[in-house]
Design a protein that fits this description.
17 helices; 80% helix; disordered C terminus
Length: 462
C-alpha cells in the first residue's frame, strides 16, 4: 500500500511539472529515469528545465545572452522551442557530448545555471545510458501519461484531508488553551530555586549519613532483619510442605494403584471375548457345512441349522454382557480413584494449614531495631527541609509497616480464598502509606519558605 501512495505522489508531481514546463507527464517520467541512469538526481530536473527554457528565451541565469552558446553548439533556438523540452534537452546533451570538458562545462553553466550545470554535464558524458533508459521507460511513461489527472486529484484530496485534520487539532488546542495556561501559571508559581536548595541540603544530609556510618548501620540492620524473617519463614514453609505431603501422598499413591489395577480387568475380559468370538466362528462354519450337506433331509437340515443359530445367539449375548461388565467395572474404579485422590489433597491442605498456623510467631527483634533506626534517619533528613523532623507518622509510614503472623500457607503464597486481607492486601497498604510519605515531602518542598538570612538554620539533634 505504501508503494501505491508513492505512485500517486509521483504522478501528481509529474502533473504539476507538466503544467510548469509544457512537456507531457510521460516524457518527464522518461527524463527522470534517464537522469537516474546517468547517476544524476531527479530533484535537479525541474530547475534544469526552467533554466533551459529561460536560456532558449535568450538570457542565462546571470542575465547574459545565450545566443552565442547555442550558435557554438550548432543548434537552432527556434527548432528547439518547437521540439519541446524533452527533445530539446536530448539534443543539447548530444551536442555537449562532442565538446571538450572545459567548453562543455561553460555551455552547461550558461544553459542550465549553477544548480543544474553539474547534472547536465554528467548526462552529456553518458549518452548511451541516457538513450537506453529513455527508451526502456516508455511503457511506464504511458501509464503516468494516462493517469496523471487521476493521480493529481488523489493528491489534492489527500492534502484536503490533511487540512481538515489540521483544523481538528487547531480546534482542540483552542479549547484546551485556557486549561493549559492555568497549568503553566501554576508551574510558574513554584519556586524551583528554593526547591533546588532544599534538595541540595537533602543530598548534603545524605552524604553526612554515609560519613557517620548511619546508612551502613541501616543497611546492616536491613540484612539482619531479612535473614531473621527469611530463616523463620523458610523453616515454616518446609515444615508446612512436609506435613501436607505426608498427609496427601500416601493416600494419592494408593488411589492411583487401585485405579491402575483396573487395567487388568480389560486383559481378562479380552481373553474371554476372544474365546467367545472363536466359538461363534466355529458355529457359523458348522452351520455353513450343514446347509451344503446333500445327505440330510430338509427337516433334519432345518433342525440342525436352528440349533446352530441358538448357540450363536447365546454366545453373542454372553459376549455383549462381558463387554458391558468390563466397561462398568473400569468406570467405577476410575471414579473411586478420583474421589480418593481429591480426599487426599483435601487432607494434605488441611494438615499444611494447621502446621503453618501452629508454627508460632515470627521473631521481630531485628525488625524492631530496623524500624527505630529508620525513624531516627527520617528525623535527621526532615531537618534538611523545615528544620524539624518529618514526624512520628511520617517516619513510621503512617502507623508502621503491617506484619501478619496469622493466615494459612495458601495466603502466605498469595492466594486469598475469600474476602479481603492477606499479604497482598498488606503490601498494597504499605505501598499506599509510602506514597503518602512522598506526597508529604513534595508538599513541604513546595510550601517551603526560606528562613531569614540572619537566623541560623535549626538542625534536629538525634
Amino acid at each position: 500500500m505504501e508503494n501505491v501512495f508513492k505512485s500517486f505522489e509521483q504522478g501528481a508531481a509529474l502533473e504539476h511539472l507538466s503544467r510548469r514546463t509544457g512537456e507531457s507527464a510521460g516524457n518527464l517520467y522518461r527524463l527522470q529515469e534517464a537522469i537516474k541512469a546517468c547517476g544524476g538526481s531527479v530533484e535537479s530536473l525541474p530547475m534544469m528545465l526552467f533554466q533551459m527554457q529561460k536560456a532558449l528565451g535568450g538570457v542565462s541565469e546571470m542575465g547574459e545572452s545565450t545566443a552565442d552558446v547555442f550558435h557554438k553548439l550548432r543548434l537552432n533556438v527556434g527548432e528547439l522551442k518547437k521540439a519541446g523540452p524533452a527533445e530539446a534537452l536530448a539534443q543539447i546533451m548530444e551536442r555537449m557530448g562532442t565538446l571538450s570538458p572545459d567548453s562543455a562545462a561553460k555551455a552547461s553553466s550558461m544553459i542550465f545555471g549553477r544548480m543544474g550545470a553539474g547534472a547536465a554535464l554528467q548526462m552529456s558524458r553518458s549518452p548511451a545510458e541516457f538513450k537506453e533508459a529513455f527508451a526502456e521507460s516508455a511503457r511506464v511513461a504511458e501509464i503516468f501519461q494516462r493517469a496523471q489527472g487521476a493521480f493529481a486529484q488523489i493528491g489534492r484530496t489527500i492534502l484536503s484531508i490533511k487540512r481538515e485534520f489540521t483544523g481538528f487539532w487547531a480546534g482542540f488546542a483552542e479549547g484546551a488553551a485556557p486549561a493549559m495556561q492555568r497549568v503553566l501559571d501554576w508551574l510558574k508559581k513554584i519556586d524551583l530555586t528554593s526547591i533546588g536548595v532544599r534538595i541540595g541540603k537533602l543530598f548534603e544530609r545524605l552524604a553526612e549519613e554515609f560519613r557517620t556510618g548511619h546508612f551502613s548501620d541501616l543497611l546492616g540492620l536491613s540484612l539482619e532483619a531479612g535473614f531473621e524473617q527469611g530463616e523463620f519463614y523458610a523453616a515454616r514453609f518446609v515444615a508446612t510442605l512436609g506435613a501436607g505431603l505426608a498427609a496427601a501422598v500416601p493416600a494419592a499413591i494408593a488411589a492411583g494403584f487401585n485405579a491402575s489395577a483396573g487395567l487388568l480387568t480389560p486383559e481378562g475380559g479380552g481373553f474371554f471375548a476372544w474365546t467367545s468370538r472363536k466359538a461363534i466362528k466355529l458355529d457359523q462354519e458348522a452351520k455353513a457345512r450343514i446347509e451344503k450337506d446333500p445327505t440330510l433331509t430338509p427337516a433334519e437340515r432345518a433342525r440342525r441349522i436352528k440349533a446352530e443359530d441358538d448357540r450363536i445367539e447365546a454366545e453373542e449375548v454372553y459376549q455383549n454382557d462381558l463387554t458391558a461388565g468390563t466397561r462398568q467395572a473400569r468406570a467405577e474404579r476410575a471414579k473411586k480413584a478420583a474421589a480418593d485422590i481429591q480426599q487426599a489433597v483435601t487432607e494434605g491442605m488441611k494438615s499444611a494449614s494447621e502446621t503453618w498456623g501452629n508454627f508460632g510467631a515470627a521473631p521481630h527483634e531485628a525488625m524492631d531495631r530496623l524500624r527505630a533506626n529508620l525513624g531516627s534517619m527520617m528525623g535527621r533528613l526532615g531537618a534538611a527541609f523545615n528544620g524539624r523532623p518529618l514526624g512520628k507518622d511520617d517516619a513510621n509510614f503512617g502507623g508502621g509497616l503491617v506484619h501478619r503472623t496469622e493466615g494459612n500457607v495458601f495466603e502466605k503464597m498469595g492466594f486469598v480464598m475469600g474476602g479481603t486481607g492477606g499479604p497482598m492486601h498488606d503490601t498494597a497498604l504499605n505501598t499506599a502509606r509510602l506514597v503518602d510519605l512522598v506526597v508529604t515531602i513534595r508538599d513541604r518542598l513546595i510550601d517551603y519558605k526560606p528562613p531569614d538570612a540572619t537566623e541560623p538554620l535549626n538542625h534536629a539533634v538525634v
